[in-house]
Amino acid sequence: MAPPRFPVLKDPRFEGWHFHQADGRDGRAPVHLERLSAADKPFANGPKNGDRERVEQLAEELDLLQEHFYADGRHKLLVVLQGMDTSGKDGTVRSVFGRMSPLGVHTVAFKAPNSTELAYDYLWRVHQRVPRAGEIVIFNRSHYEDVLVPVVEGWIDEDETQRRYRHLCDFERMLAETGTVIVKCMLHISKDEQKERLQARLDDDRKHWKFDPRDLHARARWNDYQRAYEAALAATATPWAPWTVVPADSKTHRNLMVATLIRDVLQGLDLRYPRPDFDPKSIRID
User: Sign of the CA dihedral 191, 261, 178, 234?
Assistant: First the structure.
């Protein structure tokens, strides 16, 4: 059986930022993050205020589309947000999905696995949180943490890394074949921009809770994480679950690009309202 395919993105601005492979296994092209500037703004339309207004407009469009998606009930949408610390996963959730009804939209923030989760295979806790029919679920970090931190820290060898890439492709293919549309975004931030955002957290008493000294350990291994991301993106970009790299030095542009992507994906699903099992014209409300 041919694998399911991701909805076609007709907007030419996604070219060069959207990665998928002709098949799920072989002939993979490398991904070079250094050739993709985190400061680029392919979706910017002019002044920042204008882009902010466009984000607001898109949020309203997404609210209506989410209601239609929920009523249709034939699809499931999984949105994966990955990125280095301070790349804006929380901000993306607030700005892009904040207008949607909490009845049909849920966010899952994956932390380090606890002792119970470690007793199972590493995808066990992930599979429990995938969307059901009519639901949108956003993963703030995801199953891709299992091919990033363990790789950089040397906790798994190359053979295990390649096995996990295959597991992830097969897991996502199973989800896609059972009705889940998978949108994967790598929020691409520069090292200089991360420095500014981390310092801002230290300078603001209200943001100290967001600063974790352990983030500095990951920052010290910046290049290693960039290579781990490149390898993971290349190995797991498939026709049924492609990756979109989102330049994220500009928070406004990041939100604009992700909102446009989600809007276009939802519009490509041929959503339908269910037919009522009664004749609306035969009912009169007194």
Answer: negative
β-sheet bridge partners, residue 278: none
Residue at token pair 């929020």: 187
- Work out the mean pLDDT of the chain and round it to a whole number: 92
- 18-27, 108-117, 171-180: which has the minimum mean pLDDT? 18-27
Cα–Cα distance between 18 and 278 in angstroms, integer? Answer: 44
Give me the pLDDT at residue 2, please: 61
- The burial class, CB within 10 Å (0-12 / 13-18 / 19+), for 283 is exposed
CA distance 269 to 75: 8
- Helical residues (DSSP H) of the chain, grouped into ranges: 48-72, 89-97, 115-118, 124-127, 149-152, 158-177, 191-203, 215-220, 222-236, 251-267
Structure letter (DSSP) for residue 239: S
Query: What region, left, alpha or beta, does residue 19 occupy, with left being phi > 0 and alpha being psi -120 to 50 degrees?
Result: beta
Indicate if the pLDDT at residue 24 is higher than 50. no
Give the pTM.
0.93
Q: Which long-range contacts (CB under 8 A, 24 or more apart) does 46-51 make?
A: 48/250, 48/252, 51/252, 51/253, 51/256
Of the chain, the percentage scoring pLDDT greater than 90 comes to 80
CA distance 17 to 156: 29
